[in-house]
Design a protein that fits this description.
This protein has a single domain, classed as Rossmann fold (3-Layer(aba) Sandwich). It has four helices and five strands. The protein has helices at about 15-25, 40-45, 65-70, 95-120; strands at about 5-10, 30-35, 55, 75-80, 130. Belongs to the short-chain dehydrogenases/reductases (SDR) family. It comes from Rhizopogon vinicolor AM-OR11-026.
């Protein structure tokens, strides 16, 4: 491929998200890496240019933030999630709701924004969406 693709990856801090950031960078693509704690990716700055990847703080449960991360994008890898390990009876309902907000509603918010972007703003209507779930 002659022209690099622009990737938007949510949940870039670890696991599949980080692996996708590193893979796309190694292929010469342009990265927009989003995560709640951007400093987690500081080590990538020593391996790549100061602007690659472009790291943006994003909480997928905040729909306004989600709407504002879209620009010139070719691929969206919707990977943000949270998990915790503990006994069910030790889990507060507030913590369980926060988990659902991130893992379900966060994925929905990014998916809605992706579809809207590819239909309305991407001039060629081209794009790919990859959801982990």
């Amino acid at each position: 491929q002659s022209t690099p693709r622009v990737w938007l990856i949510t949940g870039s801090s670890s696991s599949f998200g980080r692996a996708m950031v590193e893979e796309a960078l190694s292929n010469g693509d342009i990265m927009v890496a989003t995560l709640r704690k951007p400093s987690v990716l500081d080590d990538l700055a020593t391996k790549h240019s100061p602007t690659q990847p472009l790291v943006i703080e994003l909480d997928v449960t905040n729909e306004d933030q989600v709407k504002h991360v879209f620009g010139r994008i070719h691929v969206v890898y919707n990977n943000a999630f949270q998990m915790f390990l503990q006994e069910l009876e030790a889990t507060s309902i507030e913590r369980a709701r926060a988990l659902m907000d991130a893992n379900f509603w966060g994925a929905v918010a990014v998916s809605f924004a992706t579809v809207r972007f590819f239909r309305e703003e991407n001039p060629n209507g081209l794009g790919e969406c990859s959801c982990k779930y």
